[in-house]
Each structure stands twice: as C-alpha cells, then as structure tokens.
Amino acid sequence: MNDLTIYLTRSFSILGTSLWEYWYRSKQFQEISGFNFTQGVFFGTPAIGGYPHEYMVRCFRSESDLKRMKDSFHKIIETKPDLALRVLESAFNMYTAERSMQRKQPEDQKVLRKNLQFEYHSIEEVCDTFVSIAVYTAILPYFWFDETAPESRIQELCRKLRADTLYPSFFHKVLLPYLEGRTGIAREDLNLFTFNEIRALDQSGREVFEEAILKRRNSISGKDFMYLVIDGVASLEFVSREESVRRIGEYMGDVTELVGIPVSFGTREIVTGVARVLTGSDISNITFNDGDILVTMNSNPAYIPLISKAGAVLSEEGGSASHTSVIVQEGLVRNIPTVMGIKRLLDVVVDNSTVTVNMKNGSVILHP
Description:
By secondary structure, this protein is an alpha+beta fold. The protein has 15 helices and twelve strands.
C-alpha cells in the first residue's frame, strides 16, 4: 500500500464510511468504470459541528486506481458523450424523484419507519438504492464536470447535481430510519458500526446487538478510527488522535506552510478573522459571527448560511468541481474570498484562533 494518496475528505459516521468505501466496489460503479478499487484507508476524527458519532473522514486511495478511474471516466466523455448524457439525465430524474419523495415524508418517525419497511424489502435493497444515488448523482458529476465544454448540457447537469448533493439526505431521511425500523436500534447506535457489522448483528438477535453497542461505545471513547480495506476485506481499528495524526502524516507529509489555491477573491486582498472550524454536517449549534473565517474540509449546501456571512472560506480540499467551488462560483453566495486545497489545514488550524488570509498568494498565517 505504498502508493496511497489522499483522495477526498467527507463527514461520515462509521456506517457512512463503510458505505462510502463500498461505492467504489459496487456493481453500479463497475458498470460505468469497468473496474473496482482494490484498497483504501480511511481515518476518522470526531467532527466539530457533527451529528452524534459523526467524523471527519479522510480517504486514501491507490494512485494507480485513481488514475484508472479518471482515465475511464475521461474515455467515456471523449468516446461516448451520448452515453454520459443519458446517464446524467437519468441521474437527474432520480434526484428529482427522490427529492420529491423526501418532501412528502411524514414527520412522525414511527409512521416513516413503518412506511419504509413496505417500500424496501431488505437491508441490501435500501443500501443498493443509496449506492446508486451516490454513484450516479455524486461521483460521475464530480469527475465529468471538468471534462466537458462550458455551458454544455452535460456540464449543466453536473453543476445542478453538484450544487445539491442528494446522498446525505437519503442517508439521514431514508436509510437510517429504515434500519431503525428493521433492527429496533436507534440511529445513534447504528452509526457506530459498519454496514456488514449491522447485517451480521441483525441476524444475531437484539440481545447480542445491544451487547455489541456497549462494547463499541467503550472502544470509541476519545478515539479516532482507521478503516482499512484490502481486496474487499475490511478491518476497523480505534486509535488515539496522536497516532491518527502520525499515520496521516506518513501519507500526506509534514506541514511546512499553509497555502492553497484562491478560487474566489471577493473584494479584499488580506482578510483577518476568527477561525471557526466545521467538519460535521450539523450547523444548528455552531457559533458563527459576521466576518468569521470558515475552516472546513469541503463545503456543502448546508453551509450556505455561514458562507454568506463569512470573511473568508478555507478548505482542505480543492478543485473546480468541489462543493466549495460550486457554491462560491455559481452564484449561491457571492464575493466571498475562498482558498481551497490547503494541505492538512484541519490538523493545524485550531477553532477560535485568529488567522490572516492572503488572497494574492493563497497563504494562511496563524496568529499566536
């Protein structure tokens, strides 16, 4: 596993992380790309501003696998653009239908869980729907956005799908309620386990499941996690934050400077403010004042209320198809200085500290 490199960083529970990994070994992914990923390492750190048991998860993938994936997606756009367009049109229809269904869901969670038991007949079926949503409405638009001519229909569909990512709401509003109704286990506890662990525990009975919950709660207390998958075989380990940072450093290298790529300059070249670190997807209890600097792994539409009043936005990830770039460049918010692709930003910047952002060169200075 010597050729591993950082791929993406997202907010997920342990359950979400295991499903995220599975996307890239699913039949849906294989049908499009022609191959499956062979290995991956995921490091999870308890999220700031997250739901219960939500983590900031860094995903490391084989450079050779990433190249194969990018080459495969590029070849489709280059040689079969009509196929790509049909796939994205179908994905947008899937997105529209699912959003409509979610808006019609009953507010009573007991009724919702009961209804979902009729709609999906097995854990595998609801997982399969979740994977389809992820592959077709998230992964493909992410890579095809940069591969097509500006203002083309393909890029338009990619832009729309990227601006309002569907899989997080399906996870929280459909998949978790279904699993709650199926197993009788609260979603907070379901999020402690991988998908395969839940399948096995569901077959073992309620008493065994509850014993496993108590053991897992003790295991995760104050710990990061590492989820390792080689040739489809997964292992889960809980480690100290110090050990997690050490291992991440082996893959990402040491931090010598904080510098990224300016993608939206706003009206000021130099911005100084209080750093507000946000690595989860729940902003309801986040303190964020006008002019604060949002420090995150990668933004999502839920962050728009914060971004709109931020002095600047700093992101560890980067790329023109990233959530942050789409939000600040496509008119969802305007004139917000934004720097992306700042290596190991979230290992260095501390919440409530003061930082200065230089938009001319994309550098970030920490104040003592």
